[in-house]
Structures are given as structure tokens and as C-alpha cells.
Amino acid sequence: MTSLSLRVTDQNFVLDRPRIPVDFSQINGVFVPLTPVDAVLDSEGTLIVLKEELEVYLHQVEYDVFDRRNDLVADGFVVKNPQPNSPIKWCAVLDFNGIRRYSDLPGMSLSPLNAHQKRKIIHQKIEGWISLLGQKDGHLIQSVVSEYLKILDGIEDE
The whole model's pTM is what? Predict the structure, then answer.
């Protein structure tokens, strides 16, 4: 199945600090799986040797509806995986702040978009969807999207 997730812009996103990439959807209770080996690379390419109680900063790449990067982030500490028979050796236990959006961190925010910028991004996404699906579902998708684009073109700048 083809993914419809098209990235229009990354806006030169920079994390607040080096963070270890993780998949928060794999969280098991309070444990976020890190790696089956004794070291990981952080977001700046630094090799981090894992050990019990090491403080770690985590992130998962995410985008908002307008393709502005807004990662999920969390802080915590390293523990050995308590599950016997798991291929994952190291996990992180999150601090009391849990998982949050990057833009929710103190002093962090996303750049605002005006109506024109929003329309442009939506146009680009829809044109991408037409190119992906247009061959298969043809004129129906194109006519629905065409009407939608006409409505978007009528939006006045905020």
C-alpha cells in the first residue's frame, strides 16, 4: 500500500539538545525500548554508551498537518530491559513529564503560517495525492479534489 504522507517542508528543524531517536509506539508500560546493543547514536551522531541510570533525552520525528516538524520528545533514564527473552537489552524509563510535543517545551514554538502558506502546502499535498491515486481512481478523485481546491482558493488571508 502506498503512503499518502508527503513532506513539503522540514523548515530546518533543530532539536533543543542531542536526543536519541526512538519509536514511542513501542512503549511497554513505562519502558521505551532503546537498543539490543550497548550504544546508540544520538541526533547529532554522537555515540552514547548506555549504562544503568544514565540520563537520556529521546525524540521521535513527527510533523503537524502543515508539515512543520514537531517531534515527540521525552526525558528519562536508562535501565536494563526487565523482560527476559526480549531482543532489546536497554530501555528508558520516562520522567514525570512523559511524552510531549517539541512545541510544548518551554521556549519552543513552531513558526506561524498565514492563510496563503497554508493553501500552498495543502495544494502541494493534494497534487501529490492526485499523482499517486489519479492513475488508479482517475476522474472521481480529480473532480473531488478540484472542487476542494476551488474552495481553498476562495479563502482570504487571515
Answer: 0.68
